[in-house]
């Protein structure tokens, strides 16, 4: 068999990892793919940067679109990043000429996956993106192939390692968000501009991709997205006391006859469920289907090695000649909106900073009574002289009811600052 010739755009963390892995495991990959897999052409911004791997003998392109049009490549690998610009133009150029594309670009697939898949289908080729969700964890293969027989009711999990690391450190050390974020930035676990991670957008990209495979493509803007900036060390202490862990979860759920619900938000999860014990930079993907039951896989969601492993696994599929349509042989369904969450019922955790004097609790409970929000548990700790943190766990209520009650609580003169509301996600197994 002729070698599978790769045009590789992006020679950063993942791109260099792919070159190293292809060289380190060349013999096994040839055996598994049935042909050798060789990088023949590359593109990046700087031609002179030392990347720690030899680029001798590889054709160089300043323009990734020109790389995608190189007649001597069989597959284009896009490891540039970003939902627009060069990355998108390169992927479109490769698919339009009918060659497969492998990408790790979650922003691109989350925002344009439906259109790119349709383009691939039109030109009788395939877009592969295993590395775009949870790095080294085979999340896409799990949902698209291993669970292809089931009609999943939920899919999601811990989809951002930076947030999981920060929450894990906050719990272990009692330090606050800003302090742990600064340390994570110094260690290189968090970006200098952390918003994509800590405000939930990276997890939302991954969730949109998973939901698209498990259910059907969703309009990214219809996702409800909240990050972890408002979670304090006091919340992590309350969680431990009440038998929970706080995790940034991204979850999509569609039960029989109900609309698709999908969100990213910090949640309280019971300590007994598998995702509760996934700590540090690790990610976890959890599914539930009526036939397959509950399933959770965890591992490294980022980094040179794990992400390169997922990219190269896609290249082995290409070498084997796999085409892997997601929704059917040809037609890509239209994008749908996720349902509003107002009527979704759950138990909630509400944490307030209050004046620690008589009558405060009576004021809180009268507001909850007026909004028909029933309390399941209450806990209180001194926050500062004359001030207390109060944690309430509600019985199941709608999102609308709890948000309206919390607006009423915020207006009380005894309540300082904004209360924090966390969903108690007790449906995972
Ligand atoms: N890092 C990780 O752990 C993970 C990354 N991903 C995804 O993988 C992709 C790559 O990430 P990562 O390797 O970390 O990114 P890096 O920032 O490390 O590397 C990006 C590369 O793209 C090149 N590049 C940027 N703009 C252009 C352009 N216009 N034309 C040609 N090349 C360009 C850069 O060139 P130069 O080096 O010359 O500046 C660089 O080599 C992203 O989509 C990311 O979301 C997914 C999972 C995990
Ligand atoms: N920034 C991501 C890794 C890339 O997907 C994370 O923290 O998980």
Observed structural traits:
alpha/beta, Homoserine dehydrogenase, 36% helix, EC 1.1.1.3, six-stranded parallel β-sheet, eleven-stranded mixed β-sheet, 14 helices, binds L-homoserine, 17 strands, single chain, 25% strand
Computed over alpha carbons, the radius of gyration is 24 Å
- Categorize the overall geometry: elongated
Number of helices: 14
* Helix fraction bin: 25-40%
Largest sheet: 11 strands, mixed
**What are the bound molecules?**
NADPH dihydro-nicotinamide-adenine-dinucleotide phosphate, L-homoserine
**Strand tally:** 17
Rounded average pLDDT = 96
Measured between the Cα atoms of the first and last residue, the distance is 46 Å
Regions with little confidence, pLDDT below 50 for 5+ residues: none
Structural class: alpha/beta
Beta-strand proportion: 25-35%
SSE blueprint:
Layout: E1 4-9, H1 13-24, H2 26-33, E2 37-43, E3 59-61, H3 64-68, E4 75-78, H4 85-96, E5 101-103, H5 106-122, E6 127-128, H6 139-146, E7 154-158, H7 161-173, H8 177-186, H9 195-198, H10 201-214, E8 224-225, H11 233-242, E9 244-253, E10 261-270, E11 282-289, E12 293-300, H12 304-320, E13 345-355, H13 360-370, E14 375-384, E15 387-394, E16 397-398, H14 399-410, E17 415-424
Parallel strand pairs: 1-2, 1-4, 2-3, 4-5, 5-6, 8-10, 10-17
Antiparallel strand pairs: 7-9, 7-11, 9-10, 11-12, 13-15, 13-16, 13-17, 14-15
Helix pairs in contact: 1-12, 4-5, 5-10, 7-8, 13-14
Bound molecules: NADPH dihydro-nicotinamide-adenine-dinucleotide phosphate and L-homoserine.
NADPH dihydro-nicotinamide-adenine-dinucleotide phosphate binds next to helix 1.
